[in-house]
Amino acid sequence: MKPTPVVLPIFSVAFFLLVVASALVAGTSIKVLYPNGGEILKSNSSVTIKWQSTGVDGKVVIVLYKKGIKHSVISRQTDNNGSFPWKIPGTLPEGNDYRIRIRWLKNLSINDFSDRNFSIKK
Q1: 29-121 fold
Q2: Are 66 and 80 in contact (CB under 8 A)?
Q3: pLDDT tens digits, 65-119
Q4: Which residues pair with 32 in a beta bridge?
């Protein structure tokens, strides 16, 4: 007599995959440290973007936002070593509504924005 195969409903498989995926990202985080809000940066100057990460290996992407909208990519991929030297372009418009976002390339849902806006002045 042949054993009867066990057939799992699709939602059970999907739930299992969701639980496994959640476990993989549990304990992973990225936190923007600088600029994190309130800073006044000068265009044509150099600053060091800083962040802290836990359980994140490989590369990260660094993106500049203005008024909550993606403005430009600062780095498409850089080592996740906690810092990135950034030469602020002189072509950026002045404003007090900038934020940085850092995202893990392996899982873009692991990311962080500056807590508050910072300024860029000429």
Answers
A1: Immunoglobulin-like (2.60.40)
A2: no
A3: 999 999 999 999 999 999 999 999 999 999 999 999 999 999 999 999 999 999 9
A4: 51
Residue 37 backbone class (left: φ over 0; alpha: ψ -120 to 50; beta: rest): left
Maximum separation of any 2 CA atoms in the chain, in Å: 82
User: Taking phi first (over 0 means left), then psi (-120 to 50 degrees means alpha), and beta for anything else, what does residue 67 get?
Assistant: left
**Rounded to 5 degrees, what are φ and ψ at 97?**
-130, 40
pTM above 0.70, yes or no: yes
102, 60 contact by CB (below 8 A): yes
What is the chain's mean pLDDT, rounded? 88
Q: Which residues contact 121 (CB under 8 A, 6 or more apart)?
A: 40, 41, 42, 43, 94
What ranges do the domains of the chain cover?
Answer: 29-121
Determine how many CB atoms are found less than 10 A away from the CB of residue 120. Answer: 22
